[in-house]
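Retro notes (design track)

What went well: tokenization of the new backbones is finally stable.
What didn't: we kept losing track of which sequence belonged to which structure.
Fix going forward: every design gets posted as structure first, then sequence, in one message. First example under the new rule, 341 residues:
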């Protein structure tokens, strides 16, 4: 099939998805339940993902037996609630998050086929693999291939649905990485590719060498860190039909964001505005902030990282709010301490 035909088919599928229902849904019958969860098509592809992605970074807790059991309960709750897309990385809990996930997959025959499994690679931790080596990024062919194989082994699956490069390697050789993607695709180890924490220019550089369409850019987006909104990242996502996945979506609301920059007065203003909107929408402040992210036309897919089953299910409420552009700006104004120019 030509790429043009592919693109027409893809557009038709998109149209169908939206025609079938104003608020596209998928039904998760993995365990007999039929919960509705709004869905999106990932990037310029035909791959359907639940709009909220479940993030597996915290599922092992301190890796004690108790925390691991709680992590498995969280994963089951996410499946039960209708999340179909699960986000991993080779470094989460030192690889234990992927292994724990495989235990849950093993409990339910047929479950794996119903889920999208994403993992990330490219960060090498201090003293890895041997003492004295610095923390660094590594997009070399050997390292990416070995990391993917190790993730697949821990996850107990044959192929990753989506592989993301975790953080941009300053020594990125785009042509070389494009070649590595080709090997991973042709060997059937990875079906689709994307990036994480890439600037628009880094994204454009890699895309210019890669035959593989980069489907997502996973970046931090929350009320504290709005760089993706202002630095061209979300503009690029809209223009190229790339799905922005938002990590730490609740940063600055229920805990300080990564490298938090909010001053006390800023936080107070945000909390006050959220309290007012919370009353208006009859939803908790953290649900309102998810609706704030969902409002952006780039179709942000927030990654939910709670390990509490009740919160994992409750997050879906954000998809139901009829959140207005005026409230979006009120919250931005509260954050900035001034109206837009
Ligand atoms: N690509 C990257 O560089 C990158 C970086 C970081 C994360 N990620 C991905 O993004 C995912 C989500 O990140 P995240 O876990 O930081 O997301 P998050 O959903 O913003 O935060 C989850 C944290 O907030 C707490 N929380 C949630 N709701 C709460 C509430 N109502 N009140 C108080 N605390 C609440 C959770 O505690 P409980 O568990 O007690 O609910 C948990 O500690 C990760 O799992 C990972 O997959 C990617």
């Amino acid at each position: 099939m030509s790429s043009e035909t592919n693109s027409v088919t893809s557009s038709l599928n998109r149209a169908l998805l939206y025609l079938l229902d104003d608020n596209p849904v998928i039904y998760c019958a993995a365990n007999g339940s039929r919960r509705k969860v709004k869905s999106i098509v990932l990037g310029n592809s035909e791959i359907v993902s639940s709009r909220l992605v479940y993030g597996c970074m915290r599922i092992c807790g301190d890796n004690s037996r108790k925390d691991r059991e709680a992590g498995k309960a969280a994963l089951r709750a996410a499946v039960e609630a209708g999340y179909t897309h699960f986000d991993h990385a080779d470094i989460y809990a030192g690889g234990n998050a992927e292994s724990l996930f495989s235990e849950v997959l093993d409990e339910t025959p047929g479950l794996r086929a119903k889920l999208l499994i994403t993992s990330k690679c490219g960060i090498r931790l201090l003293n890895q693999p041997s003492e004295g080596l610095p923390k660094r990024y590594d997009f070399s062919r050997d390292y990416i291939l070995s990391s993917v194989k190790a993730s697949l082994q821990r996850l107990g699956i044959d192929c990753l649905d989506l592989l993301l490069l975790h953080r941009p390697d300053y020594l990125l050789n785009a042509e070389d990485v494009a070649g590595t993607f080709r090997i991973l695709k042709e060997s059937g180890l990875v079906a689709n590719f994307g990036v994480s924490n890439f600037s628009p220019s880094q994204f454009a550089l890699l895309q210019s060498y890669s035959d593989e369409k980069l489907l997502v850019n996973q970046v931090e987006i929350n009320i504290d860190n709005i760089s993706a909104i202002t630095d061209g990242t979300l503009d690029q996502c809209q223009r190229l039909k790339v799905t922005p996945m938002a990590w730490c979506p609740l940063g600055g609301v229920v805990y300080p964001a990564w490298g938090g920059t909010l001053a006390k007065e800023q936080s107070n203003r945000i909390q006050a505005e959220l309290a007012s909107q919370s009353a208006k929408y009859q939803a908790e402040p953290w649900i309102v902030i998810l609706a704030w992210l969902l409002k952006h036309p780039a179709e942000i897919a927030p990654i939910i990282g709670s390990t509490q089953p009740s919160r994992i299910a409750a997050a879906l409420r954000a998809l139901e709010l009829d959140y207005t552009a005026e409230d979006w700006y009120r919250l931005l104004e509260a954050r900035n301490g001034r109206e837009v120019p």
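Added context from the reviewer: Confidence is low (pLDDT under 50) at residues 1-35.
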